[in-house]
Write the structure tokens for this entry.
Amino acid sequence: MSPHAKWVAALLACGPGSVLSHGSAAALWEFGSEPGDLVEVSLPAGMRSRQPGIRVHRRAALRPHELTEHEGVAVTSPIRTLIDLATQLTPTRLERAVNEADKLERVRADALYAALADHGGEPGIGPLRRLLDPLHFRLSDSELERAMRPVAKRAGLPVPETKVWVNEFEVDFFWPELGIVVEADGLRYHRTASQQRRGLQRDQAHIAAGLWPLRFSHWQIASEPDHVRKVLRQVAARARATGAAGR
């Protein structure tokens, strides 16, 4: 029996109100899980069903926008499915599922992040927030500068120039004596095609000019300063060794 046939049969066996959910829903949506031996089905609280080969999740009534149909199968929405998956997957597998859902345009990662506010306190929200919060964290320009200066100092770098133009691009931090350029990114997801192209052109222009372009997220600079310091120190050592300081 094909996975699709097993899913349909499981819903028929469980009766009205049943929907494919959790790993089985993810398999139908093609992110996060492969079809397994057990079919996972959600039933409204109070409904009973014991069928071989079916794992039943009894839950309070799902909201209408959390229910849909895909390929003729009643199933939880992609957002609801990812919230459910977050109760089952490791952080690495959860990140892969979110990325796959985003790539397949089942749900945009930024739309998923925005939807978390409507599900406060539910199981699965915590792991998703830990995954998505760093990607959406953003500092103001002044906060970014205040956070970067002590990190650079501990890495043995002089005070950088900030918000200056280098190779016809405005950069966040620049050490001209070392040829190091640092750009700070806020969101990782969903830059437009023109923004992506401009980002590539910026990095290419710096490399072609013999500079050392680096990118850190705002979250890394604010919450992982030791990592940023280590990278800056290593790149500065290479820059000095290759004579960048004499430019």
